[in-house]
Design goal:
The chain has 353 residues and is an alpha/beta fold. Helix content is 25%, strand content 29%. The protein has helices at residues 99-106, 118-130, 155-159, 185-202, 221-229, 254-263, 290-295, 327-340, 349-352, and strands at 2-5, 11-12, 18-20, 23-31, 38-40, 43-44, 46-48, 51-58, 62-69, 75-82, 89-97, 134-139, 141-142, 145-146, 165-171, 211-212, 234-237, 265-268, 273-277, 280-281, 306-312, 344-345.
Length: 353
C-alpha cells in the first residue's frame, strides 16, 4: 500500500481541494490490492480497482495523513502542510544584486535618498503602481566594493520599506559559478553571515526574512543545513529535470525535482526546508515571449499557484556587456501579467510558514 497523493512533504493550497470553514478538503489517493478494505484518516475509502480515495480535511499547518489497510494490517502515513495564503500570491525576486549598493555608496554625499539610485527608483515604482513585493538576493563583493563599505546613513529609510522589500544572502560574489555546489556547512555559514550582518548594519533586521535563493541554486545537504541555521527555511530554484538546462535544485534528486516541477512547492521534512519553483526567468525570456511563457503553464498542469517572477540585476545597466535595453519593459510586463491574472503581492514568508 502506498499513499500517492499527497506525499510526504507536500504543501497543499486552495487549488488542491475545496476550502471550507474548517480547512482544506482534499481527496487522498492510496494504492493497494484490489478488494482490500482501506481506511484513510478514519474514513472508509472508496475503491476502484487498486486505487482508493477518501476526502479528508486538513485543518492545521502540519497534518499527518494516515492510511490503514484493514485487510492486511499495513499502515502508512505522510506529513503534509496546508497553506491557506499560498495560492494566487506573487513576488518579484531578483538575483545577483550588488551594483545598486555600490552606486549608493559612491554617491553617499550626493544622494538624499536610496531612491536617487535609478534601479531602486524603478523597483519602488513597481511597488507604487502595482503593490509588488520585491526580494533582492545580495552578493557580498564585486570589483573592489563590498557590503562593509556603505554607511548606515540611510538605515531609517531602508527600514521604512520593510512592508514591500526584502534583502537576503545570495553568495560571496558572482564568480566562481556554482560556488556552493560542493561546499560544506562552514563555508556557506560564513559567507551567509557576512552578508546578513551587513544587511542588519546598513539597512536593519526588518529587511531580512526566512527565504532566499542561493547563487546557481546548488548546495550540498550540509550547505543547505547552514542556510537553515542562518534562518533560511525556504529556498527558491528552477528544479529543471529531463532536459539540458541547469538543474538549479540544491541537493534534491531527480524524483524530487520532477515532483517540484509539477507541484511548484514541496518541503523536505527531514531537513525542515521548503522549496519553491520560480515561474519564469525574465532575462532569459524575450519581451514578446513573457506573456506566452507565463500563459504556457496552463498547458502543463495549470498556472503556478504562486508566481515567482525572477530576474537578475546586471541586465539593467548599459555598461554591462549583456545589457538588455528592454529590461524594465520585461519586468513590468511580467508584473502586469500577474496582476491581471488575479495574483496578489505576497512575500513567500507570508505563504509557506
Amino acid at each position: 500500500m502506498e499513499i500517492v497523493f499527497p506525499v510526504e512533504g507536500d504543501m497543499l493550497h486552495a487549488r488542491d481541494g475545496m476550502v471550507t470553514g474548517k480547512g482544506l478538503k482534499v481527496a487522498v489517493v492510496v494504492t493497494a490490492s484490489a478488494g482490500d478494505n482501506v481506511n484513510i484518516g478514519g474514513i472508509k475509502a472508496a475503491g476502484n480497482g487498486q486505487r482508493f480515495v477518501a476526502e479528508i480535511t486538513l485543518d492545521q499547518y502540519e497534518n499527518i495523513v494516515r492510511a490503514v489497510n484493514e485487510t492486511t494490517g499495513e499502515e502508512k502515513q505522510a506529513r503534509v502542510y496546508w497553506l491557506p495564503n499560498f495560492a494566487n500570491g506573487y513576488r518579484l525576486s531578483i538575483d545577483d544584486n550588488i551594483w545598486f549598493l555600490r552606486d549608493i555608496h559612491r554617491h553617499e554625499g550626493i544622494y538624499n535618498s536610496i531612491f536617487d539610485n535609478p534601479y531602486l527608483a524603478f523597483l519602488r515604482g513597481l511597488h507604487v503602481d502595482y503593490g509588488t513585493k520585491i526580494h533582492l538576493n545580495l552578493f557580498y563583493k564585486t570589483d573592489g566594493f563590498d557590503l562593509s563599505q556603505p554607511s548606515d546613513r540611510f538605515a531609517a529609510e531602508w527600514k521604512a520599506q520593510a512592508s514591500w522589500l526584502r534583502l537576503s544572502f545570495h553568495a560571496l560574489g558572482e564568480f566562481p559559478d556554482k560556488p556552493y555546489q560542493r561546499a560544506g556547512y562552514a563555508q556557506v555559514k560564513r559567507d551567509g553571515e557576512l552578508v546578513m550582518n551587513e544587511i542588519r548594519r546598513f539597512a536593519g533586521p526588518e529587511l531580512l526574512g526566512p527565504v532566499t535563493t542561493l547563487h546557481w541554486g546548488e548546495a550540498t545537504v550540509e550547505g543547505a543545513r547552514a542556510l537553515r541555521d542562518l534562518g533560511y527555511k525556504g529556498l527558491l530554484g528552477y528544479f529543471n529535470v529531463d532536459d539540458e538546462l541547469p538543474a538549479v535544485s540544491y541537493y534534491l534528486d531527480v524524483d524530487q525535482r520532477r515532483h517540484i516541477k509539477k507541484r511548484f512547492v514541496w518541503k523536505d521534512t527531514r531537513e525542515d526546508i521548503a522549496f519553491v519553483r520560480t515561474s519564469i526567468v525574465i532575462d532569459k525570456t524575450e519581451l514578446v515571449n513573457i506573456r506566452p511563457h507565463l500563459e504556457g503553464h496552463r498547458a502543463n498542469g495549470g498556472l503556478p499557484p504562486y508566481a515567482d517572477l525572477l530576474v537578475h540585476e546586471q541586465y539593467f545597466y548599459p555598461f554591462y556587456f549583456n545589457y538588455q535595453p528592454d529590461f524594465m519593459d520585461r519586468v513590468r510586463t511580467a508584473v502586469v501579467w500577474a496582476a491581471n491574472n488575479g495574483y496578489e503581492p505576497k512575500f513567500l514568508e507570508e505563504c509557506i510558514f
